[in-house]
Amino acid sequence: MITIREITPSETWPIRHRVMWPDMPASYVQLEEDFNGIHFGLFEEENLISVVSLFVKDGVGQFRKFATEITEQGKGYGAKLLAFLVTESRKRELKELWCNARVSAFPFYQRQDFEVVSETWEKDGVAYGKMRRVFN
Ligand SMILES: CC(C)(COP(=O)(O)OP(=O)(O)OC[C@H]1O[C@@H](n2cnc3c(N)ncnc32)[C@H](O)[C@@H]1OP(=O)(O)O)[C@@H](O)C(=O)NCCC(=O)NCCS
Asked: Residue limits of the N-acetyltransferase domain (predicted)?
């Protein structure tokens, strides 16, 4: 059974590290801001499969470090977690949700009505662009 629930910052770190920056030290994925964020985890039974972190400022939500375990990608778990994040953001009456997305993940976000709203740029060998979904 799939469940999504709030998790602690440290629960996100191993999966972030394995999936996003395996060649960097583990500390690279541990953000100072994590302690001001809201973290969600998607579980299959008790196994943590996908994580995302939400940071709210002035009624606007930024999400960061969305990661699904490599062997579990492409099975729809991320889409479920993103839909949950959207619902949660609406409940919290956020005006919009945005992220600095990896260009490789653009189609994933576009499927749930996020739009690219910037030029792309590169950091540590990865191409990014800003994406946004505004709520009415
Ligand atoms: C981006 C990421 C979080 C998406 O999570 P995920 O669990 O793989 O997401 P989904 O399985 O819902 O969707 C991924 C793709 O698989 C496809 N898919 C979903 N269910 C599927 C299924 N049952 N069969 C085949 N394909 C499927 C989706 O259509 C989607 O394709 P798209 O990228 O063209 O939209 C994940 O791929 C990841 O961790 N990537 C590496 C880190 C990263 O890039 N994070 C995002 C930073 S912005």
From this structure: 2-133
Is there an atom of ligand 1 within 6 Å of 59 CB?
no
75 lines ligand 1 (CB under 6 A): yes
State if residue 18 touches ligand 1 by the CB under 6 angstroms criterion: no
**pLDDT for res 66:** 97
Q: How far is the CA of 108 from the centre of ligand 1 (A)?
A: 6
Q: Per CATH, the architecture of 2-134 is what?
A: 3-Layer(aba) Sandwich (3.40)
Instruction: Supply 16's token pair.
Output: 């972030």
